[in-house]
Amino acid sequence: MSITVVGSIAFDSVKTPFGERERMLGGAATHFALAASFFDEVHVVGPVGEDFGEPELAVLSTRGTDVGDVEHVEGGRTFFWKGEYGWDLNTRETHDTQLNVFEHFKPELSNPSRECDGLFLANIQPGLQLKVLDQCTHPRWVALDSMNLWIDVARDELIEAIRRVDCVVLNDAEVRQLTGKASLLAAAREILSWGPSSVIAKQGEYGASLVTADEFFALPAFPLESVVDPTGAGDSFAGGLIGYVVRHLDDLPSTDVMRRAMAYGTALASFNVEEFGTERVARLTQDEIHERVEYLHAITSFEHIAVELAA
Ligand code: AMP
């Protein structure tokens, strides 16, 4: 099994109440690949500039991720994002977004990337997401992420892409913005009516909810005492989730698989936020992931014994 991802490969400048980093490796595809590489072979598709060197490529290749479709654009500069978080780590302010090499990027996938079983259209222009989707020959499960910027400037293309995927993974605010519905459940159902079989609403430190035609499931975020940098949490979540789903494609459709996938996504995201950028997930181990999934299972299960209630 293999997974292809297209999305930003970036340099991020991030400030949180706990410190700051200038031009560290980031990007949606980067965070996704680091997490998904625990489960399957990952192929990363996207451009980088001349400022993207061997050390960054080495991190992107962690656990055998294929970077053959990472295009080095001569004279170009890598995507750049600058953001800041206050004490409420669920919201952030974007100070700068420079698409740079993504502006004129025309994806040309190699055969290994085209022949993927799972495809993640990570956050990037919806037009590019569609171009990658068009080139994949037989993806069995496709998921998509996006953000407020693309809902604002490329809504029609985004909806066209959503119609063609199995799963939509968005922040709760984006689910509401996209549909104009205040209720998360009603908003998710509207997105389901466009074609996908599941919608996942990420709710930052409050966890994530899964909505399908006849199921609702929610998990809290993994309880942590220290969160240092939430950047990339959503993409690490997607990496754990999609990595797990793609390992169990033959069992789909399955509520159990989706619920367990939510737990793996939650565990991966929890490691991501403990340190800046890719630092923590790059040196993560399988045992650490399993330990957190087991803990999540323990804290979210209870035995229901009905009692007689007072009239
Ligand atoms: P997340 O925190 O999971 O939403 O993703 C954070 C990553 O998204 C950062 O590493 C940024 O480089 C990347 N990012 C920020 N803005 C954009 C954008 N407009 N398009 C694509 N990627 C972006």
List descriptors:
UDP-N-acetylmuramoyl-L-alanine:D-glutamate ligase, 24% strand, globular, alpha/beta, 311 residues, 13 strands
Describe this structure as you would to a colleague:
The protein has 311 residues and is an alpha/beta fold. It has a single domain (2-300), classed as Ribokinase (UDP-N-acetylmuramoyl-L-alanine:D-glutamate ligase), CATH 3.40.1190.20. It has 12 helices and 13 strands. The chain has helices spanning 28-36, 54-60, 111-114, 126-135, 148-153, 155-162, 172-179, 184-193, 233-247, 255-272, 279-282, 286-300, and strands spanning 2-6, 10-16, 19-26, 41-48, 66-72, 79-85, 92-98, 118-121, 141-144, 167-171, 198-202, 208-212, 216-219. A 9-stranded mixed beta sheet has the order 5-4-1-8-9-10-11-12-13, sandwiched between helices. A 4-stranded mixed beta sheet has the order 3-2-6-7. Strand 11 and strand 12 form a beta hairpin. It is globular and about 75 Å long. The termini are far apart. The model has no long low-confidence stretch (mean pLDDT 97). The structure holds adenosine monophosphate. Residues 8, 10, 12, 26-28, 81, 97, 123-124, 147, 149, 231-235 line the site of adenosine monophosphate.
